[in-house]
């Protein structure tokens, strides 16, 4: 008696925390913290240089471990890079299947770097426009947390929920959902959401450009 029933959101939070702990335990085996050899090709994430590399046919993201000395949340950064690495690997796998060919190391590195750069740009745009989504506090925090962690599947799931609400920020939610669907190669769904956003706000140049450039 007297025990509190834990709400579903709290259970989910605890489960994600457990998964996070497991990922952190596995990180030393992932080879993420390596020496970045070509600084010119590196991308900056939270002020840390991250390099896209292909070694023995395996795609990975690497960074200099010492660069995390001044990072406010090094463990979260490692998980962020791991999520980005996993998303990029899956996207490259799917791209090769669609194109029915195997990329060589140079092609894989180029395509992967372009995907990582695009991911950074889309996440940054989402974060800068969060106020336009008009979400409740819990939903806002969930989207912000997913964006901060580069958790692309979670971002898409939350944006789908937001679009389904059909509230005053439907146009922005549809645009953002389309943006991440495009990133994942879900082109038809992306185009449909870009079209929805531009139809709702035909004077919005950002929405119109996204719709016009993506006649899939």
What does it look like?
The protein is mainly alpha-helical. It is built from eight helices and three strands, in the order αβββααααααα. It has a three-stranded antiparallel β-sheet. The chain starts with 7 loop residues before the first helix and ends with a helix.
User: What Rg, in angstroms, do the CA atoms define?
Assistant: 19 Å
Strand content: 5-15%
Distance N terminus to C terminus? 59 Å
Which percent bin holds the helix content? Answer: 55-70%
Report the sheet with the most strands, covering strand number, pairing sense and barrel closure: 3 strands, antiparallel
Figure out the total of helices.
Answer: 8
Overall structural class, as computed from helix and strand content, comes to mainly alpha
Shape: globular
- Spatially, the strands of the biggest sheet line up as 1-2-3
Q: What would the average pLDDT be, to the nearest integer?
A: 85
Low-confidence stretches: 1-7, 21-37
Q: SSE string, helix = H, strand = E?
A: HEEEHHHHHHH
Count of DSSP strands? 3
